[in-house]
Amino acid sequence: MTQHGSYARTALVVVAHHRIDSLTGHTARLAAARLEAAGYRIDLLDLHAEGFDPRMNVSDQPDWGNREKAYSDEVHAHMRRILDADVVVAVFPVYWQSVPAILKGWIDRVWNYGFAYGRSKPRLAGKRMLWLGLAGATADDPVVEGMRSVLETNLSEGIAYYCGFSRSTVGLLTDAEERPQRLDAEGNLLVGEVVTGAEREAQYADLDRRARAFVERFVAEEAVAA
Ligand SMILES: Cc1cc2nc3c(=O)[nH]c(=O)nc-3n(C[C@H](O)[C@H](O)[C@H](O)COP(=O)(O)O)c2cc1C
Hints:
This protein has helices at about 25-35, 75-85, 100-110, 145-160, 195-225, and strands at about 10-15, 40-45, 85-95, 130-135, 165-175, 180-185, 190. The chain has a single domain (about 10-225), classed as Rossmann fold (3-Layer(aba) Sandwich). About 35% of the residues lie in helices and about 20% in strands. The structure holds flavin mononucleotide (FMN). Flavin mononucleotide (FMN) binds near residues 93, 95, 134, 136 and 177.
């Protein structure tokens, strides 16, 4: 908060997980707390808790001949929340090297033609985006490098920059599973022992530390850009 008691900036924190007690939910709360400490007003959008329907429908499908199309009231309410935000932070588990269906559906329906793209002056121009993805793969798994690259291409280039965001970055949080897992050369999934006790605590603490670092860096870049 500023010294006048009002927030200078708003962060829309979007959570895509079906369990409130998930590691993803925990990480989203951690990110929100860091952003709030940095002076942001937080608008927490828990897509599952709010009952967001990710399915495309006729009202919200773009009409390429009409960029002024009036989309559904639900979608307009979500558009308003994005417009009111200076930064958007999405926190999600990585599913198939991508975002979960509910987050993809939010983008499909809400980041729509005439609003998010398709205008000479994009309405989302200048906003900044952080994608925090939790991945089950361990950091030393060779799959991670490709995953990071595909997420960056898809989310930053394919979505955020396409919609005029001035900055987008993916924070990939590996080792999010309690059982380390990886595919061997033959394609078998090797699932390790459950990590417990002090080792588990250390794993959580390290994930928190890496999540905090991504948020701190994002906030610091904002300060430089402002
Ligand atoms: C449908 C599905 C697909 C997944 N795909 C990937 C993947 O492509 N790469 C990966 O590292 N982990 C993958 N995982 C593991 C999740 O990323 C991991 O379970 C999650 O981040 C743990 O966080 P949570 O406890 O908050 O759910 C997948 C999990 C599910 C259920």
